[in-house]
Design brief:
single chain; 5 strands
């Protein structure tokens, strides 16, 4: 399941994933939120929490994630991913060099710092905190 998080600027799509994330979650929640943010901004930012309640992403959701990323390739300004799931961190480390955006991962206990960073001026390094 994906839920939209409130309290972020209009150029930030903020979501929390829990349980299994499916293609339906992308098509009903995430893609419309990204499309709405794109209407008012040339570049958008994404804040994505995948906490302990997140279990997996279906193949359909992974495919929609790839399509969404490619469709808006030049429109991503920054992505903050909050998770303690090592496999997600590793996947982001592999793909961060092919996405023209600032990308940072944060452990679950640094969610507040991730929220601050995604709305900041982005003059901080794009590497993962130690």
């Amino acid at each position: 399941m994906i839920e939209i998080l409130e309290g972020f600027p209009a150029n930030v799509v903020a979501v929390r994933a829990s349980g299994e994330v499916t293609r339906d979650d992308y098509e009903r929640v995430l893609i419309p939120a990204v499309d709405a943010a794109m209407k008012g901004h040339d570049k958008i930012r994404v804040y994505y929490e995948l906490g302990p309640g997140f279990t997996r992403m279906s193949a359909g959701a992974a495919w929609d994630d790839l399509k969404l990323g490619v469709a808006h390739y030049w429109h991503w300004e920054a992505v903050a991913v909050v998770t303690d799931h090592d496999w997600i961190r590793r996947a982001i480390d592999v793909f961060r060099f092919v996405v023209p955006a600032h990308i940072r991962t944060f452990p679950d206990d640094q969610a507040a710092e991730a929220r601050d960073w995604i709305v900041s001026s982005l003059d901080k390094p794009t590497t993962r905190p130690s």
